[in-house]
Design brief:
234 residues; 4-stranded antiparallel sheet; 3 helices; 11 strands
Length: 234
């Protein structure tokens, strides 16, 4: 197993194990390196040891090099909590185990019906356990089809039509339909059968310019609405 510096490409550490290494992870503070072996053991390598050399063979010692024992098959994934006190591991022995890093003891184990290929610890949202916490923007059930025509007009149960701005609520048809119509008319700007004489052409072009301004405003409102949702603090 080797550790490299990404910016320079220099090898910082090389550790030789007597078994194959199947998964690797650091703790958030990068004090320790955890390596999952093909024999089910998890090896903890201290990165702050005073006797740490560039090339070394793994051996358990009092400086922090230790072994977590419990899995019966190769360890496929590892994840360490943000405070560095807990470690999660998954294995081909069909179990997921939670470890106390300090004592190297397995706190609990979950059995599955097949090999575990991935497991990770994620930070919980700040309002996860608040009973009165609700989404700021309630949404109806999502439609199973992207094309509304597959389900009728798309306004029944499970469908939603969102229009931004008080002055756009009374418009008929969707904005995508209006955009397609506007594009087809603009492509036929020189066709007299569409616009008629020169005076009518000027009037129609003016109407199209107003329509373009409206669509630009709708696009801007939609962008600001999406930005507020994504940047709103929990």
């Amino acid at each position: 197993m080797r550790v490299w510096e990404v910016s320079s490409g220099e090898m910082l550490l090389s550790v030789l194990f007597d078994v194959g290494i199947m998964s690797v992870t650091f703790d958030p503070c990068e004090y320790f390196l955890f390596c999952g072996g093909s024999d089910g053991n998890i090896f903890q390598v201290s990165l702050c040891s005073t006797s740490l050399s560039r090339d070394k063979t793994f051996q358990t010692d009092s400086d922090g090099n230790q072994v977590f024992k419990g899995h019966r098959n190769l360890v496929t994934c590892l994840s360490v909590s943000m405070d560095g006190t807990l470690m999660l591991s998954g294995s081909n022995d069909e179990t997921v185990r939670m470890w106390d890093v300090q004592s190297k003891q397995c706190i609990w184990s979950i059995n599955h019906k097949g090999p575990v290929t991935n497991a990770v610890i994620i930070p919980a949202p700040a309002n996860m356990f608040l009973s009165d916490s609700h989404p700021s923007v309630p949404l109806p059930r999502f439609s199973r089809h992207l094309n509304p025509s597959e389900q009728g007009d798309g306004t029944g149960p499970g469908g939603m039509c969102l229009r931004l701005g008080a002055d756009t609520q009374g418009l008929e048809g969707t904005y995508l339909e209006k955009a397609d119509e506007l594009y087809s008319l603009m492509c036929a700007v020189t066709d007299k059968s569409v616009f008629g004489d020169g005076e009518n052409t000027k009037v129609r072009v003016s109407e199209l310019e107003e329509e373009v301004k409206t669509l630009k405003k709708i696009n801007k409102d939609l962008y600001e609405f999406s930005t507020q949702l994504l940047t709103k603090p929990n």
